[in-house]
């Protein structure tokens, strides 16, 4: 596969990124809820198939990007695990699927009182009566293009709600973008 640099990302890949993020969310959702975070390399499909023609029956040849599931991330601090990742130049981007808790805007004051201790923040979020479970997929390309998909888990008769917006997870997309930077 050819090397991917930020200036070498073709427009067809940037256009395909939201679809790749949806594909990752669809794939992860087939395993249900309560899944650990999962990382994916985003590889140009044509180059993947030229290198691995045996994958032709497993990959949509018309898709510009193909998500490739990676080995499970180590348990523990997700930010630390992501900071240790460096992708080869043949990878155009990456995506992370993780389950999160979504709180109403009114909960911000309560969270501010807790401070920055991650364990305390998680405890407050988990105990909040209006919390909603969700799965967030954040995807980025080397040129800075990003896409996010959020599936908010429905309850009872209420179906899941899917939201797509590039600005859903700016901190996470920044961390993912850093995994694509050349590390010395």
Task: Describe this protein with a few key phrases.
alpha+beta, 6 helices, single chain, 184 residues, six-stranded antiparallel beta sheet
Provide an overview of this structure:
- The model has no long low-confidence stretch (mean pLDDT 89).
- This protein has one domain (6-180).
- A hairpin with an 8-residue loop joins strand 5 and strand 6.
- Helix content is 33%, strand content 23%.
- Strands 2-1-3-4-5-6 form a six-stranded antiparallel beta sheet.
- The protein has helices at 11-29, 45-51, 78-83, 107-114, 118-127, 170-180; strands at 38-44, 65-69, 93-102, 132-141, 146-152, 161-164.
- The protein is of the alpha+beta class and 184 residues long.
- It contains six helices and six strands, in the order αβαβαβααβββα.
Question: What's the quick description here?
Answer:
Residues 1-31 are annotated as: Disordered. InterPro entries: PPA1309-like. Helix content is 33%, strand content 23%.
């Amino acid at each position: 596969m050819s090397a991917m640099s930020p200036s070498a990302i073709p427009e067809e890949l940037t256009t395909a990124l939201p679809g790749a993020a949806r594909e990752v969310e669809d794939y992860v959702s087939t395993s249900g809820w309560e899944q650990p975070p999962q990382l994916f390399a985003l590889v140009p499909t044509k180059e993947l198939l030229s290198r691995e023609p045996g994958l032709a029956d497993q990959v949509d040849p018309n898709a510009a990007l193909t998500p490739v599931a990676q080995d499970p991330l180590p348990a523990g601090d997700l930010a630390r695990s992501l900071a240790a990742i460096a992708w080869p130049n043949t990878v155009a981007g990456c995506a992370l699927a993780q389950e999160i808790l979504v709180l109403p805007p009114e909960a911000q004051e309560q969270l501010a009182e807790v401070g920055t201790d991650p364990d305390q923040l998680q405890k407050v979020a988990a105990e909040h009566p209006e919390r909603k479970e969700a799965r967030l997929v954040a995807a980025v390309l080397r040129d800075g293009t990003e896409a996010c998909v959020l599936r908010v888990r429905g309850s009872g008769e209420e179906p899941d709600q899917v939201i797509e917006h590039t600005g859903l997870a700016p901190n996470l997309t920044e961390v993912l973008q850093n995994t694509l930077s050349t590390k010395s």
